[in-house]
Write a structure and sequence with these properties.
Helix content is 37%, strand content 23%. It contains 14 helices and 18 strands. It has a 5-stranded mixed beta sheet with strand order 1-8-7-4-3. A 5-stranded mixed barrel has the order 14-15-16-18-17. Strand 17 and strand 18 form a beta hairpin.
Amino acid sequence: MRQDDHHQSDLNLLEIARNTMIHEGFEPDFPPAAIAEVAKINPNSPVARPGVRDLRDLLWSSIDNVESKDLDQVEYVERDGDQIKVFIGIADVDAYVAKGSAVDQHASENTTSVYTGVKTFPMLPEKLSTDLSSLVQDEDRLAVVIEFAVPTDGQVIAGEVYTASVRNKAKLSYDAVGKWLDTNGTIPELIFKIPQMEEQIKLQSEAARRLLATRRANGALELETIQATPVMDDNGRIVDLNVSEQNSARDIIENFMIAANVSMSEYLGKHGVTSLQRIVRTPENWPRIVEMAEELHEALPNEPDARALAGFLERRRKLDTDHFPDLSLAVVKLLGPGEYVAQRPEDHGEGHFGLAVHNYIHSTAPNRRYADLITQRLLKSLQSPDTNPYSLSELEQIAEHCNERESAARKVERKMRKVAAAVLLKNRIGEEFDAIVTGITPKGTFVRTIKPPVDGLVVRGKEGLKVGQHARVRLQSTDPESGFIDFAVVRHA
């Protein structure tokens, strides 16, 4: 047995993940009452109900990670003259999770699924999130359908939103579809087998390209950060860090989900519904972004300007592809995280600086995010005008709690990435790596090495460092159980 294998065998990674969840205030286990509620659900409940449209014959498909079972959305498109009409089916989680139920109470506490790489801690019991309310292949399911049209100019024309029964004809993966679309490689077997599915996916890609071109013109930021997740072998040992790469399949889903969320926001606003908006505020750290551009011999305006920043990023992507993820990471850190706010239709909100849209809502992942489940309930309140599921003050409290839990989830996931990285680097003490400064906080200065992509604390030589700056660092020590990785700066730019 190799030394690192022996050390891993001494670590209970599942226990570390669970204890980290508890430390950050999550409830990792479902209460008996919630389990009992799910057990009482009739798995053969008919999906053909009054007021529910039957769209099961459409050529729905999903694109997600190979291992994903909590499938929140399916897609279908059709050509309509010069327009491409897009249908996004979202899992109707509200049909199974009643407000105030034991399952709902647990979900409202955690507010999000947490992905540690070692184990996924789902927001909903797996009988729901990976089965009854998951849009799994070849099963009839209830969905909230968001319609919009994409003309040749890529400007989204919002359409109807309604409940329907759907049937996912093909569970596809990002990697297989992306490789096929981008390299003219082997067509995925499911696409090849199902009549008209090849034309369907290619038309989805065409619609996504239209949307992307318009988003770019409007100043949406295209960032390419490196998010490494641990790869486990059959014995539960960490053997690698996997980095997902952007491709045309991911572009389809990303652009469709953004358009669907904008359409949902506009639909609720048009009908006078107060909602949970997703915003990214105008960055307070804009001066540092300007300074970073100057270091690369570029000029940005003194006042925050999304279009100017988008143009700068696009030029850097073309000029220096290898280092673009590093620049993206620095910009992400300086922009700050997204957050939820309760907003009335008549209010002039902050908007989403990164997406360059004014009205944006989370609605496309109700199995994984509580805010999306809230959106479903707000939508359904339109069917019962006398019913208002949430007051403004309640939505404000939910928004605040979701923001706090989202921050905690990031801490859990970051800690487990560092545990995995510390395991892999344990036998590389003293080696040097190229890195980028990712954060300067009261807790310390942090860097991420370029290859492998590992986050750590600077314990020596941090003086004068700035976010986004490149540095050469030496690995000083690792503590896999705590996830601590310490570096010393050898030199910096």
